[in-house]
């Protein structure tokens, strides 16, 4: 991903896809200060995690908070690592329904 050995690494930042691709916050601990933003995407319970392709079947896209990701833990780790932005990523056919549900969940989080 980003090499800590490169001379210019302190000038690099990236948007980390959170959810089914990176679900444990370990990259925040490994590369603090490197992620300016995240892409936030939940995945249906029972769906295998860790797919590095960035794709999942449409039927596995669920509103944030209704899937299997431990969002409070991830958001705490992101805040500690200096992440400034979280961008909702919803690729479901029901995006108009799901995004408001995701926003309600996020607004109600106690971090």
Could you explain the architecture of this structure?
The structure is a single chain. The chain is of the alpha/beta class and 111 residues long. The protein has one domain (11-108). Helix content is 26%, strand content 19%. It has three helices and four strands, in the order βαββαβα. The chain has helices at residues 26-30, 71-80, 95-108; strands spanning 14-19, 35-43, 61-62, 85-88. Strands 1, 2, 3 and 4 form a four-stranded mixed β-sheet that branches. It is globular. Residues 1-8 have low confidence and may be disordered.
Number of helices: 3
- Give a quick account of the main beta sheet: strands, pairing sense, barrel closure: 4 strands, mixed
**Overall 3D form:** globular
Mean pLDDT: 82
State the distance separating the first and last CA atoms. Answer: 28 Å
Query: Helix coverage percent of residues?
Result: 25-40%
Question: What order do the helices and strands follow?
Answer: EHEEHEH
Give the beta-strand count: 4
Low confidence ranges: 1-8
Strand content: 15-25%
């Amino acid at each position: 991903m980003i090499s800590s050995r490169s001379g210019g690494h302190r000038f690099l930042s990236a948007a980390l896809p959170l959810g089914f691709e990176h679900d444990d916050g370990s990259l925040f601990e490994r590369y603090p200060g490197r992620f300016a933003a995240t892409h936030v995407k939940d995945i249906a319970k029972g769906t295998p995690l860790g797919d590095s392709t960035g794709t999942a079947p449409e039927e596995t896209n669920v509103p944030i908070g209704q899937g299997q990701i431990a969002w409070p833990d991830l958001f705490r780790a992101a805040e500690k690592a200096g992440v400034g932005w979280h961008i909702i990523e919803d690729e479901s056919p029901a995006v108009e329904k799901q995004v408001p549900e995701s926003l309600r969940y996020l607004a109600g989080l106690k971090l």
